[in-house]
Amino acid sequence: MVIFNNQKTENNQNSWIFVRPGISPREIVQKVRELPGVCFVSVGMRDAGQSDYKNRLRIYDLETLAPYYNEMGLFSAECHGGARWHVGIMNRRESPFEEIAILRKLMPNVLLQTLIRETNLWGYRPYPKNIIEHVVSVVDIDVWRCFSFLNDVRNMRTVAEVVMKRERLFEPAISYTVAPWFDTQYYLKVVDEIVALCGGVDEIILCIKDMAGVGTVKSITELIDAIKQKYPELVINYHRHITDGLAIPVLLAAARAGAKILDVEEDTIVRFYGHSPILAVEAMLREEGIPVHLNRSSAEKAVQKVREWIRDYEWAESPFKGFDHMVTRHKMPGGAFPSSFEQAEKGGFLFLMPYILEVMSLYNQIVKYFDVTPGSQITWVTCSGIVNKYAKEKGEAGIKHVIGLLRKFVEEKNQNFNAMEPEEQAELLTLFRGAPGDFKNLILGHYGMLPVGWPADWVYQSTFGDEWQEKIKERKETSPLESIPDEDLSTLRKQLDEELGRPATEEEFILYLMHPKDAIDFIKFREKYGDAPLVLPTKVWREGLKKPGDKVDFELDDKPYTIELVSIGNETDGVIHVVLKVNNKTKVFNVETPRARKTEIRRATKPNEIGSPINGTVWRIGNPQRGTLKVGDIVRKGEEIANIEAMKMENPILAPFDAQIAEICVKVNQMVGEGQLLFVLQPLEKTT
Predict the structure, then answer these.
(1) Pairing of strands 659-664, 634-635
(2) Where are the alpha helices (DSSP H) in 241-374?
(3) How many CB atoms are closer than 10 A to CB 188?
(4) Where is the signal peptide (predicted)?
(5) Contact 663, 681 (CB under 8 A)
(6) Out of 95, 245, 453, 455, which residue is the most buried by the measure of CB atoms under 10 Å away?
(7) Model-wide pTM > 0.85
(8) How far is Cα 640 from Cα 662, in angstroms, rounded to an integer?
(9) Cβ proximity of 417 and 431 under 8 Å
(10) Backbone angles phi, psi at 95, to 5 degrees
(11) Which of 495, 426, 498, 491 is nearest to 462 (CA)?
């Protein structure tokens, strides 16, 4: 018989379970306090996939870990939230509600944990208070880890109130990085605000969210020690990515300083941007004399189970391999690394990534916040836009020029705008002119207060041009919870019902509230293809059946099915006939290729023709205040007439002059290319 920590045995599996769904937050906190040493959160089902596999890990494979998680003695399993929600409906075609139901059934002993972006929930923009209240009150999650990328604790209030009222565990998180302007005293002030918000320390767990993985042994020891001195009863969970290569010694330092919970993942799923390996961390802590609450036997089985299917996801891994200690400069967080590479690859500028990261390292000294979603996306889109602009205009020499300009401004002149040469000042004043709408919203306070103050005036002048002083007057000092008006939920539900042609379920409605366009696409996909995403093996789901005789076996509703590929015909007029046997019954399917749907792409070439500034998806025609626009409507200069989504960021299209809409050339949800014609406008005649 193998003896484990705390003298528990392999055969006494249930003795490892110390917290489970249904017990109160106060009981959970007390049980963690009483636990010798540390325990673990496994992020293998959520953040591991987000950080290294572009959120492509399917519930089909992840659910195979559930029986081991159920016996492992974990504090919780982070299986939900972050960008997994969005990518689930958009790419994997899985509902987060399905995942919760599957895991509830397979691992009833485990607290299910989500990651939520305060007012942004599982999206990328601030939502009004009534949507936050509605969504958080419905989703069946035990542990709600909630962070603000600005450390604006005011933004957490509604989530905290609803979660704590539901008797679920609220886990507020500090967004953490290492920089001269974010010292221990700054973070202690954030902790003070969190404790005040939550009414003490007895019903919460505090997370230190080191999302880029830049904390050092010294800095993390100092921070946790300072927190524990001021709040000795506060339970601390340390969350740290491994990109810099130094995660394991920092986890040890965190445990020695007083952290009770550490985030880890299965050793076999670890790559370069996620979290530390569970077995290695357990062995290190044990050797250092720190008790670890972990059924190692079950953990080892989970590690082996991952080995059976993880190679099916090699295609999803980042093309940039290896640890990167330079993350301490550019601070790209683990969750954003692979998705940014994917976006760059799709956009044809993957080779520019080293330059983009270098620009980011300078940018984040000019506009100071935390590069975690949605901040990481704002940083990425803004900096990649700057690099691409210079690359298009002047090639590699142009990119090196702008990096040199920024390096001189930031490092040599200490951001003294007046110390730059006149021509350099003029160039800086155009730097952010093409910045995305979300960058503009950020510096106008639409996400909340920036953590150490607003950027310098020249940033506003660079962004807004001649209107910069008026724009500064619009800057908000309040939380979005106070400034964004409630939306009419009954009207939104009616819109979804009309789009679907039937009453929507509550779960469909919540998906729609988070991501309207992608939710509708997901619902219609599942109406057409049923539960295929949940039952097809990953290799078949991604690659299909390739040659005659290939087959796949699966179960659906406890019934066995076999699909066999019989033949693939030749393409005729853009249509291919595919013959399949489904449980020995022959069926013929017509598959249309892109050549079956040729459409002319019109370009904007005249002053009254409005083109798309980027490649993206039309997700709104009109604006929230006015609603949908139609031909014949009058629009005013500066009014939003459409919105293009690209790289998860909104890009408003504004009317360049007072006009009447003569033609709308695209539809909602349509993919458009840069320069593609969106509108034809008829300028209004000026009256004297």
Answers:
(1) antiparallel
(2) 247-257, 278-287, 296-309, 327-330, 337-347, 353-366
(3) 17
(4) none
(5) no
(6) 95
(7) yes
(8) 16
(9) no
(10) -90, 135
(11) 426
Residue 7 tokens, joined: 């003298």
Any idea what the Cα angle at residue 366 is, between residues 362 and 369, rounded to 5°?
A: 100
Distance of CA 422 to the CA centre of its chain: 40
Q: What are 83-119's pLDDT values in tens digits?
A: 999 999 999 999 999 999 999 999 999 999 999 999 9
Grouping H, G, I as helix, E, B as strand and the rest as coil, residue 648 is: coil
pLDDT digits (tens, 9 = 90+) for 439-480: 999 999 999 999 999 999 999 999 999 999 999 999 999 999
Please, which residues bridge with residue 646 across strands?
649
SS3 state of residue 343: helix
Residue 9 has pLDDT above 60, yes or no: no
Query: Which residue type does 399 have?
Result: I
Residue whose token pair is 């309040």: 478
Span 197-218, mean pLDDT? 96
Q: Distance between alpha carbon 299 and the CA centroid of its chain, in Å?
A: 27
* Cα gap 486→622, rounded to integer Å: 19
State the DSSP code for 107.
Answer: -
- What is the C-alpha to C-alpha distance for residues 532 and 536, in angstroms, rounded to an integer? 6
Q: What is the 3-state secondary structure (H, E, C) of 433-449?
A: CCCCHHHHHHHCCCCCC
How many Cβ atoms sit within 10 Å of the Cβ of residue 230? 12
Confidence class of residue 599 from pLDDT cuts 50, 70 and 90? low
3-class secondary structure per residue, 166-228? CCCEEEEEEECCCECCECHHHHHHHHHHHHHHHCCCCCEEEEEEECCCCCCHHHHHHHHHHHH
Which residue segments constitute the domains of the chain, with CATH numbers given? Answer: 25-316 (3.20.20.70), 326-482 (no CATH), 545-598 (3.10.600.10), 609-683 (2.40.50.100)
Longest dimension (CA), the chain: 96
| Residue 184 C-alpha from the chain's centroid | 27
Q: How far apart are CA 563 and CA 549, in angstroms?
A: 10
Please state, for a pLDDT cut of 70, what percent of the chain lies above it. 97
Question: 295-347 pLDDT, tens per residue?
Answer: 999 999 999 999 999 999 999 998 888 898 988 888 888 878 777 888 888 88
In the chain, the amino acid numbered 592 is E
Q: Can you give the three-state secondary structure of 44-97, one letter per residue? A: CCCHHHHHHCCCCCCHHHHHHHHHHHHHHCCCEEEEEECCHHHHHHHHHCCCHH
Distances (CA, A) of 667 to 46, 486, 494, 672: 34, 27, 20, 10
Which amino acid is residue 246, in one-letter code? L
Residue with tokens 């990425």: 380
**Three-class DSSP labels, 490-544:** HHHHHHHHHHHCCCCCHHHHHHHHHCHHHHHHHHHHHHHHCCHHHHCCHHHHHHC
| CB neighbour class for 327 (10 Å; exposed up to 12, middle 13-18, buried from 19) | buried
- Asked if 81 and 123 touch (Cβ cutoff 8 Å), the reply is no
CB atoms within 10 A of CB 527: 11
For 568, counting Cβ atoms within 10 Å of its Cβ (0-12 exposed, 13-18 middle, 19+ buried), the class is middle
- Please give the structure tokens belonging to residue 299: 């953990």
Please tell me the distance from the alpha carbon of residue 437 to that of residue 381, in angstroms, as a whole number: 10
Report d(CA 433, CA 518) in Å as an integer. 29
Measured between its terminal Cα atoms, the distance across the chain in Å is: 96
Structure-token match 């270098």, residue found: 358
Question: Is residue 649 within 8 Å of residue 124, measured between CB atoms?
Answer: yes
**What is the C-alpha to C-alpha distance for residues 635 and 413, in angstroms, rounded to an integer?**
44
In the chain, the percentage of residues whose pLDDT exceeds 90 is 79
